[in-house]
Recover the amino acids of this structure.
């Protein structure tokens, strides 16, 4: 299996199979509207704009798993993200990202990388290479952190 074998539902209710992004580099991030890390949306949007032409797709996955910091409906989440942060990258419907009810993509990523790579808070990042392999970056790794930007650039080249 690879990351491209999983399906999400888009925030507007349409199917969002990751196979439509096969051959791209994905940055899959569990997001929340009322978190101290929410300003990371700005950096995620900047990454999306900067590297989209090279094949990067940022995907936001709203999750209410940590501190109930994403309590809203999909419509409320979408309005918040587009209105406050001008988010234009794809967003999924709200999903659990930890525990036995976690979305299958998240269960797979933890199985691939080990329990230490499970999200511990909002804005955990999974970088998926063009080959579908995944690496993990914690919530405190900002979108402009050199280690994340370097990994994205390497994945885009490779």
């Amino acid at each position: 299996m690879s990351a491209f074998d999983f399906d999400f539902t888009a925030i507007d209710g349409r199917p969002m199979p990751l196979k439509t992004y096969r051959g791209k580099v994905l940055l899959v991030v569990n997001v929340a509207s009322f978190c101290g890390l929410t300003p990371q949306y700005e950096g995620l949007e900047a990454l999306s704009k900067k590297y989209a032409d090279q094949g990067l797709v940022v995907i936001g996955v709203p999750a209410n798993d940590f501190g109930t910091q994403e309590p809203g409906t999909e419509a409320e989440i979408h309005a918040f993200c587009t209105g406050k942060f001008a988010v234009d990258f794809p967003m999924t419907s709200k999903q659990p990202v930890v525990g036995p009810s976690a979305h299958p993509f998240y269960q797979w990523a933890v199985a691939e990388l080990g329990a230490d790579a499970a999200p511990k808070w909002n804005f955990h990042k999974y970088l998926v290479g063009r080959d579908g392999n995944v690496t993990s970056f914690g919530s405190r790794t900002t979108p402009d952190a050199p280690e994340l930007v370097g990994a994205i650039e390497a994945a885009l080249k490779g």
